[in-house]
Amino acid sequence: MSFGYRAIALRGIALAAIVAAFGAPAMAEEVKVVFGSTGSDLTDFPDLVKPWEDKTGNKVSVVPMPSSTSDQFAQYRLWLAAGTSDIDLYQTDVIWAPQLAQHFVDLTAAAKDLIPTEFPSIIQSQTVGGKLVALPIFTDAPALYYRKDLLEKYKQPVPKTWDEMAASAKIIMDGERAAGSKDFWGFVFQGNAYEGLTCDALEWVKSFGGGQIVEPDGTISINNPKAVKALETAKSWVGTIAPAGVLSYQEEEARGVWQTGNAAFMRNWPYAYSLGNGADSKVKGLFDVTTLPVGAEGDSSAATLGGWNIAVSKYSKHQDAAISLALYLAGPEAQKWRAIHETHLPTIQALYDDADVAKAAPIIPQWKNVFLNAVPRPSAPTLGKYNEVSAKFWSAVHDTLSGNGSAADNLAKLEGDLTDIKGDNW
Length: 426
Prior knowledge:
This protein is an alpha/beta fold. Helices cover about 45% and strands about 15% of the residues. The chain folds into two domains: about 10-140 and about 305-370, 3-Layer(aba) Sandwich (D-Maltodextrin-Binding Protein, domain 2); about 140-305 and about 380-425, D-Maltodextrin-Binding Protein, domain 2, CATH 3.40.190.10. The protein is built from 19 helices and twelve strands. The strands form three sheets. The protein has a six-stranded mixed β-sheet with strand order 1-3-2-4-12-7. The protein has a four-stranded mixed β-sheet with strand order 9-10-8-11. Strands 5-6 form a two-stranded antiparallel sheet.
């Protein structure tokens, strides 16, 4: 897929408070935003930004990226290393702040009124060297989606362990196929070799009591029997309850199978909730969500912490307008719109008690405690080496799922690779 500067002109966005703070521009400016397309984010963006555009007189255009966060990050690094002024705002993953901070404007002063309304831990995740380098626009923690109609039909409980999920998935899959649904599967998830697999596999490992790959103190912990068991369990799903093609699935491929009514269970982020209940969805009104399963009774459920932020490039020629837009995107009006229309979890605390949000997206107030207890990827302890760590991890996991070596052998090799990457220290 091309990474060129293919800009799609979109309509813009704003708040009266932001206009008051920054003033209406003497001449209209075009602000360019870059982000990946997942779900309906790209098609929704004109409606999201329209209030800001109307109130400021500025225009917004988007440079679209593929949905793979790994591909996005690689392209971002190229643009930023070159000091390009063609991009004003970057939508960034929660894990990228330490690696890209030097290229972004410190937003601490501009966001002084917004910061107290946010969850402190999320603000802290985007603060590097005392500088707030990106503003949170939504947070994320995944769920286990399940067909409540099919659990009832086959008299299966909402699963609490991965083994219970797999057993119910097979019963439902076999029953639906016998009834004529030949393309029906038990479980779909993100199995491609990319950052998404790091998220899925971290959940498996952590939920089996196998640690967090690299612990907060920097210790490499991944090579242990519980992590081995977690990956061997996941391997057993491929080609049985999950299609062999799941090894190439990202979020949207999994959602595609699920939303056409061809899966009993799915692991995915909250954005899939509103789309699954859309007018064109074959599972509208037929599903619910629950916390991800555990390895065994007594273990704790693990949901990888996700989330996206907006950063202003130091190389932008439209910094005032870009900061104004960033404040709008991170502010209550835009976050509420995204919560209602896209089921994106807000980072502004008060929105979890908002009646409009609860009515339109009941998953959101339910999910507050899930993301507050979500498991972070080890970007904090590994600092600028995180992407190398993640790539080695997802490669080892993908090899295991594909049958290229056992989990024990692959994790032993991974430990050696991570030790080499760490060197004297992270």
